[in-house]
Target: Polymerase/histidinol phosphatase N-terminal domain-containing protein
Amino acid sequence: MGHDHHHHQASGPYADQAVPDGELPPGELARRRFLQRLGLVGAAAAGSGLLAGPAAAAGPRPARPVPPAPAPGRLRWLAGDHHVHTQSSYDAMHTVAQQVTSGRRHGLDWMVITDHGHVAHEKFAVKQTYADVLKARAANPSMLLWQGLEWNVPSGEHATVFFDAAKDEITALHAFERLFDGNVNGTNHTSDANEATALAALRWLSGQIDRGAIDSALMIANHPSRNGRYTPHEFRNYRDTAPHIAVGMEGSPGAQNDGGHRGGYGNAPGNDSWSGWPSESYRTFGGFDWMTARLGGLWDAMLAEGRGWWITSNSDIHQANGSTLVRPDTPGDWYDTHGRYPDPVDGGTPQEHADFWPGEFSRTVVGAASHTFRGVMDGIRAGRVWVGMGGLVSALDVRVHAQGGGQPATLGGRVRVRRGGDVTVRISVRLATEPNTTGRIPRLARLDLIRGAVTGPAADRDSFTNPDVSVVQSFTPSGRATELHFEHRFRNVRDPFYVRLRGTDGNRSNGLEPMMDVQGAAAPWDDLWCYANPVFVDVA
Model:
């Protein structure tokens, strides 16, 4: 898979404020000036104030106002992929243009380019890639295209980070990578000091929004269980420190065509893994991360606190399965000296890889108020998201009505009901009518409505279970209709809860639950699932 961590320690005269500007070499002076233009001077520019020392995490930060949710019927549901690599990643190959073309071919409306944080990437590739992104935007005006970063989270794993494209997003992105990427600054390994650095990074992003340097930012934790690097308390700390930025995690990883283990989830605990995770957490279940797939697991434990922690899905594409493109031969140090590989060439033979093209297999569908950069970001931030595999479901509409209440809530929203009142969940599903890559039309076999109790903040910040979670009803499509409608009513509601949905083609399950994917025999197209983010029910 080539997702290994690389450890580098940044140093140089630019970081020593005792060295006068006039004594700096031109390159070092340029680095210092770059940070000063962002308002990062003194200790901040040197990286010592923000990057060093196990500073205590700030207390919970109140969530920033999110624009009021439009009525569910007025939303535009836009499909996208927030985890896409290009030739500017040390382990990838395709150009920005090739990725965007494939995304459009597979029906995507938005994409985020997320090359790996790396010393060579920060030094050479950020601006080169941005030029490619600008060209792709001009050539594909209907595609919302961001340049983000796969952040090597200090003391954690990987995460997607991206900014609203309304301002100079490239300047903030470049500074963020230089200051806070674990590969660039040698802060990858698990430690209290490095955990504090990750929180400092989120506070820095929040500060850039406060001072108007950027309009908006999002962080989504990638393949959260793959290496056991993330802990429950880190997720809670991220969310408390910057709830308007750190909003969730990949519910299912990319690299679904990895025949040995979907998503590259074939690992065992390592030196930086958290000891509290059970062995099964290092595997996928129906292609979904254990944190999401396990009923009453980490995702449900986060939702039990009554605040959003949303899931997404994506391709994590490095090399596309079935493509005839290959990387030209280059010397072994090519990437380190250029920050990107040459454009791929046609080798004439379809290649077998772990990754699907953007939108080919997995997609994140966002309910946006408008087809704009901010519209999609606000939709993700608000949790108006469902995710699907293999074209199992074409469209999903969820509306939760409270007795005597006003406007119904959709995914990520909340309704309030008087104690003793009823709550009705109405679901509409549009089934697949077109064949997917296999040439088959997938068929939804079952849709589960899941209810979980909301019990408030966890006393143990490393807890990862919610025992009060269950499937309250399973809907089974019948007949030949392609548009299905289901309804469930919760009567005499006394306590707060949330509801969420998952669906399956029914090919592999353990009762109602997804089965662990078989090592060495994963077949993604034969085990398809979809999941939706929750709707919360508050009790007056």
Q: What stands out?
A: The chain has two domains: 75-363, 393-539. The two ends are 50 Å apart (CA to CA). Residues 393-539 form a domain with the Immunoglobulin-like fold (CATH 2.60.40). The CA atoms of residues 90 and 328 lie 14 Å apart.
